[in-house]
Design a protein that fits this description.
The complex is a heterohexamer, with 2 copies of chain A (119 residues), 2 copies of chain B (139 residues) and 2 copies of chain C (102 residues). By secondary structure, chain A is α/β, with parallel strands linked by helices. Chain A has 4 helices and 5 strands; from the N terminus they run βαβαβαβαβ. The longest helix of chain A has 14 residues. With 102 residues, chain C is of the alpha/beta class. The chains are: A alpha/beta (119), B alpha/beta (139), C alpha/beta (102). Chains in contact: A-B, A-D, A-E, A-F, B-C, B-D, B-F, C-D, C-E, C-F, D-E, E-F.
Chain lengths: 119, 139, 102, 102, 139, 119
């Protein structure tokens, strides 16, 4: 089965990005596919390459980058939400791309299920 | 809303790759406007979804009904008033707007207080409608 | 004057207003801001709670937040005082301290 | 199967659980995640609401979120099923759709 | 907590410029842990405040009492367990931890369930204490 | 009177930063002083110089920068919170500085009132 994932909140402040990651990893582990992870609202802040969390904490943007690389997952940051919040190519983490909201709608059409993680 | 509308061009192209499939999209609105940005950014997704020729509905319940209250004047808080966009949805062929009767009543609101014509459904009717959807988006 | 409490959540979404009113001490003031302004509207089950609360507390509501949400002043519960940002500043200055109910 | 509902807020902070339970249709499932897991604990006024809800709904709770919060499995309301992230995936796959109560 | 502790050096210096004044600082904790980061980041401010020789108190009520529940095991969610830091507060001379009895009871908790010794106050006693503070911080 | 201000939330997503700004502007208008505006939690995102909100919307980071310049206000971003979230000197907006949490405690000591704006 193919899952689409929407993340509405930024890293660390809310658990949304963590729960989405744990869900996605479990889905892959069970042989499902992740159609796309779409980052909207403050969710775009998951895509910063400048984050330097304490060494004893998880590195959320890096975790997504590695997940995308290992499992060939499409990580899409909403351009409009990102411009509002100061996420651009110059501070974008590896494995993320910036695109339009149409990518979210398309994920809703293509994926078998679209799950929303937020506040 | 400007960037959302500009965005349509790029999105339509993507939409074509998904051509053929028509799904029932339901946008759930349960949050009041201005205190948070979800109402505004939800509306931006709704506008984009129109370009994909999907079967789009909007449900307003709980504090979401406050999004549609008329007479919003935001100069005092310095935030853009996005409520006129609800009136523009019609032009995008988005006509299925539902408010929940129980949520309206609890807040002392009637459809007279709203800025667009909407269909008022009972809690049971609206839940039933949501259950028939293919994609349910909450923000 | 004792504490100024600020509440910024809708009374239909969180228990924040309840939590504040249950704990604010007699003679304190409560200022409803942001989504908290919905608590000040007539014709809801919260109205009775507000009337009850005004027996021991002064209740204020931020006008610009009311207007933004299409809530007209004539719908404000009687006894609740409408202030602007300048009034918010005055309240903060007049009270010994400010507690934000986040 | 019909809808899978997810609730991620504490029942003592927001009305989200109430809102979901009042609307979830017979035969649906509710999965409590993140701060929503507090709804699954015995010995609170929510317990009765849960027992009532289980007459028409299947209630699940995410184990890792329980453990993180120091809530032991033996304190979970009887009838509520504990699942892990894999179980969450299975529930999402088995139901026609997922509604997140944000 | 590491960076918070490292941060103290820089902060102590700043603290000296404020030397002499001792205020009553109350940290209000009303939110549960892990769902949001407020509990953790609040604790970081508390640790820093210790370096300023202020009169520091922590109040836990509403869902804030959940922060102190013992037996937190966070491996499953992949988030660091910050609860041991509450036990370390003592070493920073932060000893005034108060939980509200009513909040505990509503949640079916007793002080036996908590990971640190705390003083349990009634709602009225705690509110009275908060009213005597100079600075009230909420996160 | 001297006010200290703490902002716990980022720009746009929550109204906190707007309310804090309107409060601060009104305070200045009444002849009060702002001791410092401290940005913590997601509040650090108010300090990005990369934000490009839609032209018909307010520019929150720029509004703070101009406010600081016009009224000589100290805008402090918490370093620990900023590192977690990817705010650094390279994407810091004009008029903001990055420093430790001690600056918040100091503001609590020095200011006559400390007001908190958040979610």
């Amino acid at each position: 089965m193919e899952f689409g994932i929407l993340i509405n909140e930024g890293p660390y402040t809310h658990q949304a990005s963590d729960t989405a990651y744990n869900f996605a990893a479990a889905a892959i582990g069970k042989g499902h596919k992740i159609h796309r992870v779409f980052f909207y609202h403050d969710g775009v802040n998951n895509g910063t390459r400048l984050a330097e969390p304490p060494q004893d904490d998880r590195h959320i943007p890096k975790r997504w980058s590695e997940f995308a690389k290992n499992h060939n997952i499409d990580l899409v940051i909403c351009v409009a939400a990102a411009l509002r919040r100061g996420i651009k190519d110059e501070n974008l983490a590896e494995g993320f791309r910036i695109s339009g909201l149409g990518q979210l709608v398309e994920s809703g059409i293509q994926a078998d299920r679209l799950l929303v993680f937020g506040d | 809303m400007s960037e959302a509308i500009n965005d349509v061009g790029e999105s339509v192209e993507t939409g074509e790759s998904a051509a053929g499939k028509v799904k029932k999209f339901m946008f759930i609105n349960r949050k009041s406007p201005y205190g948070t940005i979800y109402a505004l950014e939800s509306l931006e997704v709704v506008l984009i979804s129109a370009a994909f020729d999907q079967d789009v509905s909007l449900a307003f319940f709980d504090d979401g009904v406050y999004q549609l209250v008329k007479g919003q004047k935001t100069q005092g808080i310095g935030i853009k008033n996005h409520s006129p966009t609800y009136r523009a949805l019609d032009g995008y062929d988005i006509e299925k707007l539902y408010v929940e009767k129980e949520s309206m009543e609890l807040r002392g609101l009637t459809t007279e207080d709203l800025l667009v014509p909407v269909q008022q459904l009972s809690r049971g009717e609206l839940s039933k409608l949501i259950d028939t959807q293919d994609v349910v988006l909450s923000f | 004057m004792p504490m100024l409490h600020t509440v910024n959540k809708s009374p239909f979404y969180t228990y924040t207003l309840e939590s504040c009113l249950d704990r604010a001490r007699e003679g304190s003031a409560v200022l409803l801001i942001e989504d908290g302004v919905y608590s000040a509207m007539r014709g809801t089950p919260i109205e009775r709670r507000m009337v009850e609360a005004m027996k021991k507390l002064a209740i204020y509501v931020l006008g610009p937040d009311l207007e933004a949400r299409g809530m007209t002043y004539d719908r404000v519960v009687s006894g609740v005082k409408v202030v602007d940002y300048g009034g918010f500043v005055d309240l903060a200055a007049q009270h010994n301290n400010v507690q934000s109910w986040l």
